[in-house]
Amino acid sequence: MDARQFFLEQYDTVCFIVNDLFLKGMTDDQMRHQPNEGLNSMAWYLWHTSRWQDYANTLIDPKSKQVLDNQWCARMNVNRADVGTGMTREECTQFNRSVDIEGLRSYWNAVGNRVREVARSIPLEELDHSVDRAQLYRMLDDGTLANERARWLPSFLEGKNKAWFLSMAIWHTAEHLLGGVVCVRRVCGIPVGL
Questions:
Q1: Tell me: the pLDDT tens digits for 7-57?
Q2: Which of 22, 51, 52, 113 has the highest count of CB atoms within 10 angstroms of its CB?
Q3: Which pLDDT belongs to residue 38?
Q4: Residue 143 phi/psi, 5° resolution?
Q5: Residues ≥6 apart with Cβ < 8 Å to 48
Q6: What number of H helices and E strands is found in the chain?
Q7: Contact by Cβ (8 Å): 177, 16
Q8: 41-78 burial, b if ≥16 CB within 10 A, otherwise e?
Q9: How far is CA 125 from the centre of its chain?
Q10: Backbone φ and ψ of 33, nearest 5°
């Protein structure tokens, strides 16, 4: 088993847990709910992780285009294309009011399919290559980051290799969609059982 196959097995496991155990059966209202100060909604966590994966694919494979386009924005009823880092509570609240949950779930799944395509297609020897610095810093101007509160990100990400960005699809999802969603469900009194 090579590193790509190992990644795909782990990624599929995390996606199964998210889709079939943590988000399955959640109502639109439950997905949109921001339970407490400092906690995001389950919908926001799904948006944020999807957007980051969609963007990271273009760093791993510069020929890859993001899934998000005008049609997806219309389908999800969102008017932003950033990755969500640094959004204020008010911006999150507005996002939660307007987002189409079914469209968001479809976008998450479409991005997951693209992650798998990128993972299968990247040559093993490229996994150790750093992502292009100029491409990374374009996030400051191309709408990937929407506010000043997120301007620290390119310097944090600089020097990371393609394997790191690919693995981010697992650990970032685990952090937000497993950790964050479990926290939101517990605070809202929604049982979490495996």
A1: 999 999 999 988 888 888 889 999 998 887 667 888 999 999 999 999 999
A2: 51
A3: 62
A4: 95, -5
A5: 40, 83, 84, 85, 176
A6: 10, 0
A7: no
A8: bbbbbbbbbbbbbbbbbbbbbeebebbbeeebeebbeb
A9: 25
A10: -70, 130
Q: What is the DSSP letter of 18?
A: I
Environment class of residue 161 by beta-carbon count within 10 Å: exposed (0-12), middle (13-18) or buried (19+)?
middle
Structure tokens at 169: 């699809």
C-alpha distance from residue 54 to each of 34, 66, 130, 154, 180 (Å): 24, 5, 18, 16, 20
Q: How far, in Å, CA of 32 to CA of 121, rounded?
A: 35
What is the length of the chain?
Answer: 194
* Residue-wise DSSP of 30-86: HHH---STT---HHHHHHHHHHHHHHHHHHH-TTPPPS--HHHHHHHT----S--TT
pLDDT digits (tens, 9 = 90+) for 97-119: 999 999 999 999 999 999 999 99
Contact, 180 vs 40, CB < 8 A? yes
- How many Å apart are CA 183 and CA 194, to the nearest integer? 15
Structure tokens at 31: 């997905």
